[in-house]
Amino acid sequence: MQGLIQRVTEAKVEVEKEVVGQIGQGIVLLLGVEKADTEQTADKLLHKVINYRIFTDSNDKMNLSLKDIEGELLVVSQFTLAADTKKGMRPSFSSAGTPEQANTLYQYFVAQAKVAGLKVATGQFAADMKVSLVNDGPVTFNFAIT
Prior knowledge:
Radius of gyration: 15 Å
Largest sheet: 6 strands, mixed
Oligomer: single chain
Shape: globular
Distance between the termini: 6 Å
Helix content: 10-25%
């Protein structure tokens, strides 16, 4: 499972010029599902996302997590994160999960994030989305969970 997180002051997702998800301070997670991923993989990624210390404390050190600051989470499905870009000039998506598997794990991830007590917003699975955000820092991290 691939996850790209960005620390943001605000973010939103639009589909056909309608806002479908919006957050204030928190994290935007672009989520890519691969064939070998399971609910256990999703749980590991969720734990990392909500507990990763990327927010600054009173000493201006990255010491606080999303949970610590009671921040918000915007989860956007993005199958292109599963691309293999090692060869040639065109990405291969052979390791990407099927749309059915990806949607199931995406929905599972979102549900578990809500169970964890987070305020969660989402994009729309498999839609042509326009994602707008203000990256705070900028601070961006890529996770590959197996």
